[in-house]
Amino acid sequence: EAKSSGRGQVCYFNNAMRKRLKQQADIENDLQHGIKNNEFALYYQPIFSLNTGAIVGFEALVRWFHPKNGLVSPDTFIQIAEQTGQIIELDLHLLTLAAAQLKRWKDQGQPPIRVTVNVSSRHFASLEFVDTIRELYQRYELHSGSLCLEITESGLIANLALATKIIHGLASLGVKLYLDDFGTGYSALGYLHQLPIHVLKIDKSFIDQLTEKENPLVDAILKLAQSLNLTVVAEGIEQQTQWQLLKQKGCQFGQGFIVSQPLPADQAMAFVFSYSENIGKI
Ligand code: C2E
Ligand code: MG
Ligand code: MG
Ligand code: MG
Asked: What sections of the sequence does the record tag as coiled-coil (predicted)?
């Protein structure tokens, strides 16, 4: 932020700002190397039915094993990658990793499972993105609908006409679109029923508040989803009371530490089996 506004301006940096700029510049450099050196991995967090407990899919979440800094969380580099534009290359790299993993599971004879990959809304500015996804489906022989996308609402409305074309193109490939962090951005509700979006993900911040007292916003989002015929996934469920409340209110799916944290691929698949054996017992 300071970087883009600071160019050519008189600007007084304090030490904290200087340190942050240095960190950002380092991340920018390291990202480039990191992609080449294969330092990024996807972890997989189960998405489950609130009614049956069955695991219905995974969200793929990036982890960076930085050679010097160790495990780096996406919150520290996704935003920078967005700003520098490196997110395009990083997302494509991660989409490829997810597709390769789906192929590996398929070759192992695992039952088909859906993986959602987070992508920047920057991809929704070029029709090429549809070709990219089509090629991934072909190259990795993916089951229809097994690789789906999560996107936040903010970027979509910048160029709604083009984004709409792209989303229709993706939908025709069987790719379902998940609207991530729903409720936290500038919701432009007008476009929701025009776009072939399939799933709303209620942001964790709303679920956090859903403990002893009710949260009218969660009710409102669930009603909205119902009337638009959208599926809902509640993010960040940590407590049994949240699960029960959401289930009572008609929310179909959930995700959160109550079932599992994001796991490396092999552990995630193993978890599905051990967990489903225990569903009847909890
Ligand atoms: P998100 O897509 O909303 O992902 C959900 C985040 O909530 C993940 O954090 C997940 O680990 C965390 N989470 C899930 N359940 C719980 C819970 O019960 N309790 C708590 N405390 N946290 C929970 P993570 O992995 O750190 O990812 C943060 C954000 O970074 C993601 O938010 C997403 O916006 C972005 N991101 C992650 N991976 C990718 C990626 O591959 N590409 C892009 N473009 N963005 C990504
Ligand atoms: Mg997400
Ligand atoms: Mg989310
Ligand atoms: Mg979130």
From this structure: none
- Quote the distance between the C-alpha of residue 109 and its chain's center: 26
Ligand 3 centre and the CA of 204: distance in Å? 7
* Residue-wise DSSP of 79-144: HHHHHHSTHHHHHHHHHHHHHHHHHHHHHTTPPP-EEEEE--GGGGG-THHHHHHHHHHHHTTPPT
Contacting residues for 163 by C-beta, under 8 A, at least 6 apart: 121, 124, 125, 156, 157, 195
Q: What is the pTM of this model?
A: 0.92
Q: In this prediction, what percent of the chain has a pLDDT beyond 70?
A: 93
Structure tokens at 5: 């506004």
Q: What pLDDT score does 1 carry?
A: 43
257 lines ligand 1 (CB under 6 A): yes
Give, for ligand 1, the residue of 44, 118, 253 to mutate: max count of ligand atoms closer than 8 Å to Cβ: 118
**Helical (H) or strand (E) element with 247:** helix 240-248
Section 183-193 average pLDDT = 77
Quote the tokens at residue 69: 């800094």
pLDDT exceeds cutoff 50 at 143: yes
Q: By the 8 A CB rule, do 204 and 236 touch? A: yes
Label residue 26 by pLDDT band (50, 70, 90): confident
Contact indicator for 241, 22 with CB cutoff of 8 Å: no
**CB distance 62 to 73 below 8 Å:** no
